[in-house]
Amino acid sequence: MDKGLHNNLKKKKGKLSLLLEVLLISMKLGLTSFGGPIAHLGYFREEYVNRRKWLDEKTYADLVALCQFLPGPASSQVGMGIGFIRAGFLGAISSWLGFTLPSVIALVLFAYFLKGTSLSETGWIHGLLVVAVAVVVQAVWGMAKNLASDRPRATIVIVAAILTLIIPSVFSQVGIIIVAGIIGCFLFRSTTDSNSVLIPISFNKKIASILLVLFFVLLGFLPLVRQFTHSNLIALFDGFYRSGALVFGGGHVVLPLLQAEVVPQGWLTADQFLAGYGAAQAVPGPLFTFASYLGMASFGWKGAIVATFAIFLPSFLLIIGALPFWNWLRHSPRFQAALHGINAAVVGILLAALYNPVWTKAIKSPFDFCLALAAFGLLTVWKCPPWIVVVFSAVTGALLSFIS
């Protein structure tokens, strides 16, 4: 055998072995990572930094900081970034597939078996609606403490919540986020982290720039395509891509954006939407796979594939496109200041979602309020894993339905 051909085959075999390793390890994390993005980051650190030594503590911390700065699901982006550092483009895709696929399959199956069920007559489903109240309250409370602890940012939260409720449109939410970012540039002058280091990435900045440009082109071009084609699947892709591109502050913030895309269109009822959101708390992996449930419940298997791909595509374009420019972003006072305003605005948007549709659709009686209060106590006081609280709420809802 030709020596050059032998070397090429050896390299390809090594590359495939590396990709398989990334896929299997990320899939293990996707099957076991309960508890939301903060818990996910802890699992990642243990697996990739402490156990595998794929990157050091400082590099991991800088990667996490970058993903916190970017819109999208932070834990999924960290996984993509680690996969990219380890095995390039295909490594990023393998990491995403492994971490995401288990919860995608679980939520698609949930949507499939839920189809045709009368939600108003199903006690355990109503329990899922109620637990969504506790989960969103916990998210709003925790985010407000971290992201709106002073008077200016608390004011942005309140104004954003009022405007979101008065002008219920996904486009108004986008406008609120943009305006809050502009206000943040002038109100908040963050101190830069002079101790940060450049993540060790050897990647062409021109290609990275193309990915970032593609991110913005799709964001602006897809709504036009949607208007001219009148295709439900293209409308689904546009709405979920935009939702994935504009979510700052954690997975829970995607709730109002997705609700504005699927419920007013008549693709799902508000009860179906919240039942899926409650179920999403019980599965491991990223909360963004809630999109898979919505796509399946709206348009079947094609909808599930389109929705899942669309909501994660912005994250992929941003993390791979931003990595070579991380050093500049990390030291940009304007960029960091804008994020203070944006993060406060998304707390306000989530606060509005807590009222409508979460509270108005779930809390119908004093028993519902008591169940929501109990679930909130289990989450915040007793620190129970979310999936346990979901099971508790579903069982309690079924029992209350049987008794009444």
TrEMBL record:
<keyword id="KW-1133">Transmembrane helix</keyword>
<dbReference type="GO" id="GO:0015109">
    <property type="term" value="F:chromate transmembrane transporter activity"/>
</dbReference>
<feature type="transmembrane region" description="Helical">
    <location>
        <begin position="232"/>
        <end position="254"/>
    </location>
</feature>
<dbReference type="GO" id="GO:0005886">
    <property type="term" value="C:plasma membrane"/>
</dbReference>
<feature type="transmembrane region" description="Helical">
    <location>
        <begin position="306"/>
        <end position="329"/>
    </location>
</feature>
<feature type="transmembrane region" description="Helical">
    <location>
        <begin position="362"/>
        <end position="381"/>
    </location>
</feature>
<keyword id="KW-0812">Transmembrane</keyword>
<feature type="transmembrane region" description="Helical">
    <location>
        <begin position="207"/>
        <end position="225"/>
    </location>
</feature>
<keyword id="KW-0472">Membrane</keyword>
<feature type="transmembrane region" description="Helical">
    <location>
        <begin position="89"/>
        <end position="112"/>
    </location>
</feature>
<feature type="transmembrane region" description="Helical">
    <location>
        <begin position="387"/>
        <end position="403"/>
    </location>
</feature>
<feature type="transmembrane region" description="Helical">
    <location>
        <begin position="124"/>
        <end position="144"/>
    </location>
</feature>
<protein>
    <submittedName>
        <fullName>Chromate transporter</fullName>
    </submittedName>
</protein>
<dbReference type="InterPro" id="IPR014047">
    <property type="entry name" value="Chr_Tranpt_l_chain"/>
</dbReference>
<comment type="similarity">
    <text>Belongs to the chromate ion transporter (CHR) (TC 2.A.51) family.</text>
</comment>
<keyword id="KW-1003">Cell membrane</keyword>
<feature type="transmembrane region" description="Helical">
    <location>
        <begin position="20"/>
        <end position="44"/>
    </location>
</feature>
<feature type="transmembrane region" description="Helical">
    <location>
        <begin position="335"/>
        <end position="355"/>
    </location>
</feature>
<dbReference type="Pfam" id="PF02417">
    <property type="entry name" value="Chromate_transp"/>
</dbReference>
<dbReference type="InterPro" id="IPR003370">
    <property type="entry name" value="Chromate_transpt"/>
</dbReference>
<feature type="transmembrane region" description="Helical">
    <location>
        <begin position="156"/>
        <end position="187"/>
    </location>
</feature>
<feature type="transmembrane region" description="Helical">
    <location>
        <begin position="274"/>
        <end position="294"/>
    </location>
</feature>
